[in-house]
Write a structure and sequence with these properties.
The complex is a heterodimer. By secondary structure, chain A is mainly α. Chain A has ten helices and no strands. Chain A is globular. Chain B is built from eight helices and ten strands. The structure holds adenosine-5'-triphosphate and magnesium ion (MG).
Chain lengths: 253, 255
């Protein structure tokens, strides 16, 4: 089953590359419009060798991870409070809903103006984009804790902390992971948007640079690396989920 | 008050419960009084919606009455106590915990050391006959097995009183008979006071020392009768005339 999926993936990738190359052969496009796969590969190898890819990728990964961590932390904390206290919910939910009407992409320049072109502004943009889906899923997850299990914990005189650790967190985890999966990919978008607006390093900066120099192969390389980064993050979340939520998955029929 | 009331484990006095919501006030229980003696097996019988679960939640300290008083060993019962174990209407297991870990939960909450927990859980697993299923997850258990886990869990911290809310309501007839025998055995072995809610008349007669019948909503006690059939009881008892007579009387009381 697994090997078959791997084969299908390899075949579809090969087809894609072949199609791309065919277009190059058939239509005589200048390379700044559509570079050949081989020149993209060569460009890739070049920035691997001179170490610049590692530097830019490192920056973006740091921003993404910090942003994700910050967004996760604040969203789960606030989500817990919202789910626990109707007063907090009534107080804050109008603002939270309204905040969703604000396009983060449009706010990004403001954050860069206020916080400078350094890493902080990107971390914050990533955190803001991650925040909402994680918040919603935390609240929904907490609400999904069965009332009967809450009564069980009360009848066993569990403390608040024990109830959180032994009931609420494990019960909310499946829904929470839904938010985390979306959040992990959104964090990449957030960091790159921040880099577009103003930065002197990172994959978003590299894309900007390539565009300015008509080095389209560099743009392609950066985009592919970004796709790889997002997929890797997603894969880590899914693997973590499979591990922590093994009780939920039935063995494959 | 009589000496019977003084020696009681649990007693309720002029208990009334009403729920207020958008549709107005709903009277679930009205003027219910009774006292349960140590090691008594009491069944509470009544039609659906008459307030049986509500009564049990009050006896478990999970809900406070609108009017009246509940006492445990003479003290007002205002919150759940370790001396009272609760078995819920559905097995109510944590799906992410194994059979072992589900039974261990009350002991874990008490903060006992791991070796002691393991020893006590092993004993309970033997008691309810789940040897070899320690690592199974609830999703893989049959209804009867899940209910055994729930009973073992309720017994884990060795409570004096066991409250059971229709523990066998969702089981097929044969499993049900088996579980009834099991419960009787555990009750004899562990010498617990048991209060069990059911809406099966034969089950109430077969298991109990005493049956309390509640009327349709608002639930009031319309019959409170001893069942003096000799013990130990066998399933065959159900086909004797005495049994049939008692069952008929209870049926008539429900209306
Ligand atoms: N928290 C609540 N809020 C409002 N009404 C409630 C609440 N709990 C119970 N009720 C109502 O009180 C009545 C008695 O409920 P209860 O669950 O005690 O009945 P029951 O005898 O256990 O029924 P069943 O045999 O179906 O389990 C029902 O009409 C129910 O709708
Ligand atoms: Mg009920």
């Amino acid at each position: 089953m697994r090997t078959r999926r791997t084969w299908l993936l390899l075949i579809s990738l090969a087809t894609l590359l072949l199609g791309w190359q065919t277009v190059i052969w058939l239509v005589d496009l200048p390379s700044f419009i559509l570079p050949a796969p081989i020149s993209v590969a060569r460009r890739f190898w070049l920035i691997v060798q001179d170490g610049s890819l590692a530097r830019h990728l490192g920056t973006t990964v740091t921003e993404v991870l910090l942003g994700l961590a910050l967004g996760l932390f604040s969203a789960t904390l606030l989500g817990y409070l919202l789910a626990k206290s109707p007063t907090v919910e009534r107080l804050l939910s109008p603002y939270i809903v309204a905040s969703q009407a604000v396009p983060m992409v449009a706010v990004a320049p403001l954050l860069v103006i206020w916080l400078g072109p350094g890493m902080l502004s990107k971390v914050l943009i990533a955190a803001l984009i991650v925040f909402f889906p994680v918040l919603v899923n935390t609240v929904v997850g907490m609400r999904a804790v069965p009332e009967e299990l809450r009564a069980l914990m009360r009848s066993l005189q569990a403390t608040r902390w024990q109830t959180l650790r032994l009931l609420e967190i494990p019960a909310a985890l499946p829904v929470f992971f839904g938010g985390l999966r979306v959040g992990a990919t959104l964090a990449v978008i957030g960091a790159v948007v921040g880099e577009f607006v103003g930065a002197d390093r990172g994959l978003g900066f590299l894309i900007n640079l390539g565009r300015g120099l008509y080095d389209t192969a560099l743009v392609f390389v950066s985009v592919f690396v970004l796709i790889g980064l997002a997929l890797a993050l997603y894969g880590i979340v899914v693997a973590l989920e499979a591990r922590l939520l093994a009780w939920q998955q039935r063995p494959d029929p | 008050m009589s000496s019977l009331a003084n020696s009681a484990v649990l007693s309720v006095d002029r208990l009334s419960v009403s729920f207020t919501d958008a549709n107005g006030v709903l009277h679930a229980l009205e003027d219910v009084s009774f006292a349960v003696q140590p090691r008594q097996f009491v069944s509470v019988l009544g039609p659906s919606g008459c307030g049986k679960s509500t009564l049990l939640r009050i006896l478990g300290g999970l809900l406070s009455p609108t009017k009246g008083a509940v006492t445990f060993r003479g003290q007002p019962l205002i919150r759940p106590r370790r001396e009272i174990g609760f078995v819920f209407q559905n097995a109510n297991l944590m799906p992410w915990r194994s059979v072992f870990a589900n039974i261990a939960l009350p002991l874990e909450l008490q903060g006992l050391p791991a070796e002691e927990i393991a020893a006590r859980v092993d004993e309970l697993i033997d008691l309810v006959g789940l040897h070899g299923f320690e690592d199974w997850l609830p999703r893989d258990l049959s209804g009867g097995m899940a209910q055994r886990v729930a009973i073992a869990r309720a017994l884990a911290h060795d409570p004096e009183v066991l409250l059971l809310d229709e523990p066998f309501g969702a089981l097929d007839a044969l499993t049900r008979e088996q579980m009834e025998a099991e419960l009787l055995r555990i009750w004899r072995l562990r010498r617990k006071t048991v209060i069990m809610v059911t809406h099966a008349i034969p089950e109430a007669v077969y298991l109990s020392d005493r049956v309390i019948v509640l009327s349709p909503r608002p639930g009031r006690i319309c019959l409170d009768t001893p069942i003096s059939l000799p013990r130990p009881r066998q399933q065959a008892l159900q086909y004797t005339p005495e049994f049939g007579e008692l069952a008929l009387r209870l049926r008539a009381a429900i209306g």
